[in-house]
Design brief:
With about 220 residues, the protein is α+β, with helices and mostly antiparallel strands. The protein has a single domain, classed as Alpha-Beta Plaits, CATH 3.30.70. Helix content is about 25%, strand content about 30%. The strands form 3 sheets. A 5-stranded antiparallel beta sheet has the order 2-3-1-4-10. Strands 5-9-6-8-7 form a 5-stranded antiparallel beta sheet, covered by helices on one side. A two-stranded antiparallel ribbon has the order 11-12. The longest helix has 14 residues.
């Protein structure tokens, strides 16, 4: 897939990931995101945008989905690091646009924090085994997309186990988030999000949905 918009100075990395049940709606969302896509997976699109572009694109996408049946996740990545994207099995990745960092292998150390994990697994049995591994340590967000919150060494242990199940044509990507607040859905349904505590992890249900533009204001102008 290609993009018609080259990244510019001042752009920020965002990920759009969808789980859409209807073929026509899925195709419409794919065609919309193609204009901005730099790299990614089958239903996960890596982009470099400015806040006003994210707002405009999100409004356009909301008009293409069924907000009761579909899920469409948007994440703002942590640009403070040398790269916000790690990838297992780099051989499947095509070179992204010049001037933007490409995904790098998972480092030997990761800090505690919030990470989005997405995968494309080509074979059904491998997919099922990896799903079982992910279910033990992460929060399921939507198809092939999980949230990890916790210590970096535990994440590395999980990724090592996932790596033993992968083949060369599989693709697993780990995205650095500044905070879980930098992740939001363009659909009505929201999952339970765990908060990190020093002694234990408490699940907090996010009740009530702010309006779209209130959410944008909190994200981009806080």
């Amino acid at each position: 897939m290609t993009t018609t918009t080259l990244p510019r100075e001042g752009d920020h990395p965002y990920v759009f990931a969808y789980d859409i049940t209807d073929n026509d709606r899925r195709k419409a969302v794919l065609n919309c995101l193609k204009r901005w896509r730099v790299d990614g997976q089958y239903s996960v699109h890596e982009t470099w945008l400015r806040p006003f572009q994210v707002r405009e694109l999100s409004v356009e996408l909301i008009g293409l989905i069924d907000r009761k049946q579909d899920r469409l996740l948007v994440c703002r990545l942590d640009q403070r690091r040398s790269t916000p994207i790690y990838q297992m099995q780099l051989s499947v990745t095509k070179q992204p646009l010049v001037g933007k960092p490409r995904p790098v292998p998972v480092p030997a150390q990761l800090s505690q924090g919030d990470y989005l994990i997405c995968y494309d697994i080509r074979e059904k049995k491998r997919l099922q085994r990896i799903q079982r591994l992910m279910a033990k340590r992460t929060l399921y967000l939507q198809r092939s997309v999980y949230l990890y919150r916790g210590k970096g060494n535990a994440l590395l242990t999980l990724l090592e186990a996932v790596g033993t199940e992968m083949q060369d044509d599989d693709d697993v990507r780990i995205y650095n988030l500044i905070h879980v607040r930098d992740m939001w859905f363009l659909s009505h349904e929201k999952p339970v999000v765990p908060e990190i505590h020093s002694q234990k992890t408490e699940l907090i249900a996010k009740r009530g949905i702010k309006t779209l533009f209130q959410r944008f204001k909190n994200l981009f102008y806080r």
